[in-house]
């Protein structure tokens, strides 16, 4: 049974796009559609911490020829067909699932909060104003060639620039987690969930979706909801 | 037990009912469902037969519009419909909106000339312009919002050769001087939709 200390497994979903819906109060809610596709438990990894295990979840399918020999052996030893994407999720001992269990969109409860993790869109080499939100310089009044520059990079002493100083560089493409996004709709026919707001990454990105781990005011699951624990069978 | 709750249906989120008990004045039972099953239910995803591997976003868009199309208003926004049956820029339109979902009888009306239609699937919207007490007023209505109760074309526009009539803001001509339409609007407001 689900307890407050339990942590269910997450899933891998694909960001399919954004649309909108109107809730029962007539308020328009922008939503992101995340679709699951043959999400299965590939293996259960025991860690040095006896009270927690990690579950390796696989998404999609891949041709035998396209899979490397080491991975082919890994899938064969687990008895699962080759998967396109593999991610691990830490779970509590009561939420461990057997290898080969398929996880569908019904794993989620409408109204619950989820965290979505994915690499964000790459922005390329960006200046200091876009990358770090610096103010830049004056637009006029005699400003010479310094409209978007960082300005000073330090003090007279220690007479050097600190490592990690915010400077121009490659922006984006890093893992970002959007926390506590409500699941607005669970569609078991299309095997997708609608999540309020935006999710990092472009369309067709692989998103790690898990039950929210931040418990601030409201619980992760709505009151009175029956949580499919450890997953919906 | 789980199978009866979830099954092959789409389940929509319900907001925290406790927060709204005081404002709506309605009593909700303690065992109220935390989710809503949207109506109507589509047992099969709305994919066209020629689509071998249908794009999930297209299917969702079609399904959302079909579900929100309560009174056939999507015919007003389809391009393949004859101009006399669809909404065009230049038509005089009457819109009745609900002010709140908690009381469906409280409504507001607005009549105006349609100066632009934005066809975006579920986010389809149109702008109506009118001159009210010598002040130009534009209102943008989301066609499939549950708060928009009724959309009626009072008079078809003639002589408008553009999709967006933003020039009417500077050069209205005689467009907003139609007193007969005030009467039409009032009768449309009073008419009961069966």
Automatic annotation (TrEMBL), chain A:
<dbReference type="GO" id="GO:0006412">
    <property type="term" value="P:translation"/>
</dbReference>
<protein>
    <recommendedName>
        <fullName>Large ribosomal subunit protein uL3m</fullName>
    </recommendedName>
</protein>
<dbReference type="InterPro" id="IPR009000">
    <property type="entry name" value="Transl_B-barrel_sf"/>
</dbReference>
<keyword id="KW-0689">Ribosomal protein</keyword>
<keyword id="KW-0687">Ribonucleoprotein</keyword>
<feature type="region of interest" description="Disordered">
    <location>
        <begin position="145"/>
        <end position="169"/>
    </location>
</feature>
<dbReference type="InterPro" id="IPR019927">
    <property type="entry name" value="Ribosomal_uL3_bac/org-type"/>
</dbReference>
<dbReference type="GO" id="GO:0003735">
    <property type="term" value="F:structural constituent of ribosome"/>
</dbReference>
<comment type="similarity">
    <text>Belongs to the universal ribosomal protein uL3 family.</text>
</comment>
<dbReference type="Pfam" id="PF00297">
    <property type="entry name" value="Ribosomal_L3"/>
</dbReference>
<dbReference type="InterPro" id="IPR000597">
    <property type="entry name" value="Ribosomal_uL3"/>
</dbReference>
<dbReference type="GO" id="GO:0005762">
    <property type="term" value="C:mitochondrial large ribosomal subunit"/>
</dbReference>
<dbReference type="InterPro" id="IPR019926">
    <property type="entry name" value="Ribosomal_uL3_CS"/>
</dbReference>
<keyword id="KW-0809">Transit peptide</keyword>
<keyword id="KW-0496">Mitochondrion</keyword>
UniProtKB/TrEMBL annotation, chain B:
<keyword id="KW-0689">Ribosomal protein</keyword>
<comment type="similarity">
    <text>Belongs to the bacterial ribosomal protein bL19 family.</text>
</comment>
<dbReference type="InterPro" id="IPR008991">
    <property type="entry name" value="Translation_prot_SH3-like_sf"/>
</dbReference>
<dbReference type="GO" id="GO:0003735">
    <property type="term" value="F:structural constituent of ribosome"/>
</dbReference>
<dbReference type="GO" id="GO:0005762">
    <property type="term" value="C:mitochondrial large ribosomal subunit"/>
</dbReference>
<dbReference type="InterPro" id="IPR001857">
    <property type="entry name" value="Ribosomal_bL19"/>
</dbReference>
<dbReference type="GO" id="GO:0006412">
    <property type="term" value="P:translation"/>
</dbReference>
<keyword id="KW-0687">Ribonucleoprotein</keyword>
<dbReference type="InterPro" id="IPR038657">
    <property type="entry name" value="Ribosomal_bL19_sf"/>
</dbReference>
<dbReference type="Pfam" id="PF01245">
    <property type="entry name" value="Ribosomal_L19"/>
</dbReference>
<protein>
    <recommendedName>
        <fullName>Ribosomal protein L19</fullName>
    </recommendedName>
</protein>
């Amino acid at each position: 049974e689900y307890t407050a200390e339990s942590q269910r497994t997450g899933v891998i979903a694909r960001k399919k796009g954004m649309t909108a819906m109107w809730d029962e109060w007539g308020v328009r809610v922008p939503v992101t559609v995340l679709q699951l596709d043959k999400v299965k438990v590939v293996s259960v990894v025991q860690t040095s911490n006896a009270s927690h295990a990690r579950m390796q979840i696989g998404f999609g399918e891949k041709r035998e020829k396209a899979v490397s020999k080491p991975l082919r052996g890994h899938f064969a030893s687990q008895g699962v067909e080759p998967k396109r994407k593999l991610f691990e999720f830490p779970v509590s001992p009561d939420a461990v699932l057997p290898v080969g269990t398929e996880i569908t969109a019904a794993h989620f409860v409408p109204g619950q909060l989820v965290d979505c993790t994915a690499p964000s869109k790459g922005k390329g080499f960006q200046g200091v104003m876009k990358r770090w939100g610096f103010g830049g310089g004056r637009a006029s009044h005699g400003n010479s060639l310094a409209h978007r520059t960082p300005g000073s990079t330090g003090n007279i002493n220690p007479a050097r620039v600190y490592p990690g100083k915010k400077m121009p560089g490659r922006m984006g493409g890093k893992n970002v987690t959007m926390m506590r996004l409500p699941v607005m709709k669970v569609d078991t026919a299309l095997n997708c969930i609608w999540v309020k707001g935006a999710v990092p990454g472009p369309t067709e990105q692989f998103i790690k979706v898990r039950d929210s781990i931040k418990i601030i005011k409201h619980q992760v699951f709505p009151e009175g909801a029956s949580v499919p624990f450890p997953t919906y069978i | 037990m789980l199978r009866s709750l979830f099954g092959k249906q789409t389940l929509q989120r319900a907001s925290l009912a406790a927060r709204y008990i005081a404002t709506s004045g309605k009593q909700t039972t303690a065992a109220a469902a935390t989710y809503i099953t949207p109506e109507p239910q589509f047992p099969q995803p709305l994919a066209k037969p020629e689509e071998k591997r249908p794009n999930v976003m297209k299917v969702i868009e079609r399904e959302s519009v079909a579900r929100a199309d309560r009174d056939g208003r999507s015919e007003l926004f389809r391009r393949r419909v004859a101009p006399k049956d669809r909404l065009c820029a230049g038509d005089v339109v009457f819109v009745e909106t609900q002010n709140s979902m908690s009381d469906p009888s409280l409504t507001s009306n607005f009549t105006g000339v349609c100066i632009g239609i934005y066809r975006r699937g579920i986010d389809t919207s149109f702008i109506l312009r009118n001159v009210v007490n010598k002040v130009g007023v534009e209102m943008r209505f989301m066609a499939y919002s549950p708060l928009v109760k009724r959309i009626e074309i009072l008079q078809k526009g003639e002589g408008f050769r553009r999709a967006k009539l933003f020039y009417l803001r500077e050069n209205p001509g005689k467009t907003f001087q139609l007193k007969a339409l005030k009467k039409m609007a009032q009768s449309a407001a009073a008419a009961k939709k069966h």
